[in-house]
Amino acid sequence: MNKKYLAITGGSRGIGFSVAKKFIQNNAKQNLILISKNHEHLSSAKKKLQEINPNVDIITIATDLSSHSFVKDLNILKELSTNSNSQINGLIFSHGKSFSKILLSSSEQAIAENIDLNLTANMLLTKYFLKNFFLRPNLISKPSDEKDEFKTHQNTEKTDGISIINISSVIAIKGNMGQSIYAAGKAGLIGFTKSLAREIGGRNIRVNCVLPGFIDTDMTRDIPIELKAKFIDDMIIKRFGDPEEIADACYFLHNNKYITGQALTIDGGLSV
Ligand SMILES: NC(=O)c1ccc[n+]([C@@H]2O[C@H](COP(=O)([O-])OP(=O)(O)OC[C@H]3O[C@@H](n4cnc5c(N)ncnc54)[C@H](OP(=O)(O)O)[C@@H]3O)[C@@H](O)[C@H]2O)c1
Fold first, then answer.
1. Mean pLDDT in residue range 169-177
2. Domains plus CATH for the chain?
3. For a tag on the chain, would you pick the N or C end, based on fewer CB atoms within 10 A?
4. pTM, two decimal places
């Protein structure tokens, strides 16, 4: 029997943790790979998730996704990649760090670190999983012309396939004072999502992204109360979102087999 794993970056806290919870609550057979930076946060998340479903297998990987060398820490998954009874059925990239400083005051190093974490890591992670899991021979259908890796071909199959979801941000399309660098990384994810959806769609892999508005997690906890009130005033639905509301959307995008290349905004109407 095939053991299915969903890999979630940022799965230790906030939106990523809510995504992990949603999937194991709704599918008793879903196993998880959680990738985040901090060991203790990962252990605590694993414990909480196993209290919900004691049978779920959870592999945790603590690594700094802002460093280009993080890929070597994924070697722990080598056994999984060679085990024909295991399969990764999706990736949800929910790691990230906000960066609030105007461009003029931002150092080159800070710019590079933020883009590395919020954009480059998604590309390197996707490439790693494509090469080591999704594009392995005999797992999924391949385009007929192997010579042209970008050749599009008709994918008319209604099989489960694989789903990749990038968590971007409404700031990517709306902009925000002091967040030009964060916005650039998050906007990059939208372009990456749409082009990648075309590049690998023929392999039965769907790629989408979600653009959350202000969500109640550790990331937004320190926003000064007056600023929070100003953001809320701009929203149609007058409150910050719950991480579960983003998790619901990820679950929907993962399971709907006819959506790809899309950017779904969930922001209480902030960007309208
Ligand atoms: N909250 C919002 O209002 C909001 C709005 C729009 C978009 N987003 C996006 O949604 C995603 C999740 O945000 P959140 O609100 O859930 O944030 P959060 O509660 O602060 O959680 C961030 C997650 O990212 C991980 N992470 C941070 N830096 C990392 C690094 N260098 N290497 C590996 N993992 C790292 C953290 O791991 P550790 O636990 O190990 O630190 C944690 O699991 C982010 O991409 C964020 O930009 C959030």
1. 97
2. 3-134+157-266 (3.40.50.720)
3. N
4. 0.94
